[in-house]
Amino acid sequence: MSGAYIFDVEGTLVDCVAANLKCWDETLRSFGISAPSKQLRLLSGMDGDEMVATLAPTLDKRAREKILSTQGERYRVHYLPGVRPFTGLRKAFTAIKARGGRIALATDCQSDELEHYRGLMNVDDLIDAVACGDEVSKGKPDPALVELALNHLGGTPAMLATMVGDTPFDAKAARRAGATAWGTLGGCHPRSSLLRAGCSIVMSSVGDIGRFLNRQKPKATPVSAHRG
């Protein structure tokens, strides 16, 4: 088997969604914005600025940036230290590498948060490329992060790539980039939402990926037409 596997991080590789949602609720309330918990869960994983614009459409860009900055600071101080990786992560990545696959990360989080997560995950030696939120102007469901990850992998064709994430926004970004989408239930989105968003496989957690790799058909490398 060959091909690339592009992983979201928050909610897919590290268990942080509940903490992130609590942080968002506290931050929004501090700005006088009340968002039902169900709505916050539905928007979990969406580009932050787009999410705030959805929740508070009358706010201008500067006000949204202030909320995003405050939420980030609160999360780093009060919640980031408690994040832990999901069980079986290294085993999952090792299974991919044993089958000839390459691995990239594509995450909306900022570079300092990603550095912290990478220190927890103990898989740096298995990662081939990283695309981070501060490298693109828009996060998922925009396909820019997935496309950037493919570019960092040396221009791997999207048809040879599988994006693994815990939200419908990961799946939509993958499909828009031309990649296959797989889902995990490590966040707050149900299986039905991930399937509707385009996931061909939904697993309980990233630790289960090995048994799904065995079911996947080999991905053939595109052959360029010979011109005589």
Outline:
With 228 residues, the chain is an alpha/beta fold. The protein has 10 helices and 8 strands.
Fold and architecture overview:
It is built from 10 helices and 8 strands. It is α/β, with parallel strands linked by helices and 228 residues long. It has 2 domains: 4-15 and 84-213, HAD superfamily/HAD-like (Rossmann fold, 3-Layer(aba) Sandwich); 17-81, Orthogonal Bundle (DNA polymerase, domain 1). The strands form 2 sheets. A 6-stranded parallel sheet has the order 5-4-1-6-7-8, with helices on both faces. It is globular and about 50 Å long.
For the termini, the CA-CA separation is: 31 Å
Structural class: alpha/beta
- When the domains are counted, the total is 2
Rg calculated over all Cα atoms:
18 Å
What are the secondary-structure elements, in order, as H or E?
Answer: EEHHHHEHEHEHEHEHEH
**In this structure, how is the largest beta sheet organized?**
6 strands, parallel
CATH superfamily of the largest domain: HAD superfamily/HAD-like
**What is the number of helices?**
10
Quickly name the level 1 CATH class of the largest domain: Alpha Beta
Strand content: 5-15%
| Strand arrangement across the biggest beta sheet | 5-4-1-6-7-8
> Given the C-alpha coordinates, what overall shape results?
globular
Helix content: 40-55%
